[in-house]
Amino acid sequence: MTTTRFAPSPTGYIHVGNLRTALMNYLIARKAGGTFILRIDDTDPERSKEEYVDAIKQDLEWLGIHWDRIERQSERLDRYHAAADELRANGRFYEAFETPTELDLKRKKQLNMGKPPVYDRAALALSDDEKSALRAERGDGVWRFKLDHERIEWTDGVLGDISIDAASVSDPVLIRGDGQFLYTLASVVDDTEMGVTHVVRGSDHVTNTATQIQIIKSLGGTPPEFAHHSLLTGPQGEALSKRLGTLALRDLRERGVQPMALLSLMARLGSSDPVELRTEMAELVEGFDITRFGAAPTKFDVEDLFPLTARYLHDLPLEAVRPHIDALGVPADQAAAFWDMARENITTLADLEGWWTLCRDGAEPLIADEDRDFIAQAMSLLPEGPYDSDTWGSWTKAVKDATGRKGKGLFMPLRKAVTGMERGPDMSTLMSLMQTVRARG
Ligand code: GLU
To answer: Which residues line ligand 1 (CB under 6 A)?
Structure first.
């Protein structure tokens, strides 16, 4: 059975880059009728925070990305211990004692000699006595996985055939000196034991994948299918990494982005299929195909989310937005007319408030000098409220008859005097909602 997982580390809020990973894994599982696991990668007790675990769940729930199971790595440490013992028994695990400064020096020397900065495996040559002496002096060492120096190959769901020379990669550290398991080991143990069949993640993980394939095999498991999506860049192709902090899902929610707008964009961006607004998750599931995605970095422009949000809102029925409209204090018998007027003139739901303020309090009139007399005359012809859907028609007719103005010369100054704006909603509808017209004096 198809099983996928989204595996965030709870060390911060999830952002659009994480969402891409979450969504692709989710859509693959749902399309196959499989299982989608939310796995919290919290093996680092210092950096992992419970508030981020809660935030990750809230953000996914907001988007309608529902998980079938939740797992936490911090509750599976015994499994990682068992795997470490197995790697030791298989002769694939060794303790190394170099300090970060020593490793840095080695790397620099290698680079100076034009060699790739790969760990030289000096620790493999240590005798037991030497190790005891180092342990006494420096504390426990790190544990490295001894890679087989062969080519590691797989057919990637996005990148196609990949072949990596294991000799060009350092033996990965799987356990730190303080005993903390690193994600590389924890992840393969989980993927294997939880029956994960497909792993989609960012292309920054390609080298990890190579080493993880060897670790999985050395533990007797079968590697899942891997797919590495491209990384997101800003609209100009600039690195997004520094700006991701401002592209957290909760920031987008705050700015009024609608979930389906965000999901519609992320399910297609970087693929050869066009971005199309979808209103139901089921449609995204149906239309998703990871093989349509390309390896090139994908440009993401946060501003693209707003026209999609506007289009999504435009087609919503009144019931869907009723709580927002009620919260503004719109009288129940005007809610439908208000939504009809506003839906075409908002980008996010937050814009509703401005329209309701206009209806309730009127607008600061916008009157050109040459129109002052005309507006004064027109206002004397405007009846007292309450206004209705005939008010605009009968009033403008009366003004036309009295002044001889017509067309744009008639309607535009009146619109500006009533709404304070040059363009906006249909005036008949708007007028029926206006409780006061300030230009009337
Ligand atoms: N916790 C890892 C990360 O956030 C998971 C990577 C993976 O999907 O394997 O980078």
So the answer is: 7-9, 41, 183, 187, 201, 205
Give me ligand 1 centre to Cα 21, in Å. 9
* Residues contacting residue 149 through CB under 8 Å, at least 6 positions apart: 165, 166, 167
For the CA of 9, the closest atom of ligand 1 is 1
- Residue located nearest, by CA, to atom 4 of ligand 1: 8
Q: What torsion, rounded to 10 degrees, do the Cα atoms 166, 171, 175, 177 define?
A: -170
What region, left, alpha or beta, does residue 310 occupy, with left being phi > 0 and alpha being psi -120 to 50 degrees? alpha
330-335 long-range Cβ contacts below 8 angstroms, 24+ apart? 330/356, 330/359, 334/433
Radius of gyration of the chain (CA): 31
Per-10-residue mean pLDDT of the chain, 441 residues long, equals 98 95 98 98 96 98 98 98 98 97 96 95 97 97 98 98 97 97 97 98 96 97 97 90 82 97 98 96 97 96 97 98 98 95 96 97 96 97 93 98 96 97 94 93 76
The answer to whether the pTM exceeds 0.85 is: yes
CATH class of 1-69+230-315: alpha beta
Paired tokens of 61: 């729930």
Domain parsing of the chain, residue ranges = 1-69+230-315, 319-440
CA-208 nearest atom, ligand 1: 9
Testing ligand 1's pocket by substitution, the residue of 4, 201, 211 carrying the most ligand atoms inside 8 A of its CB is: 201
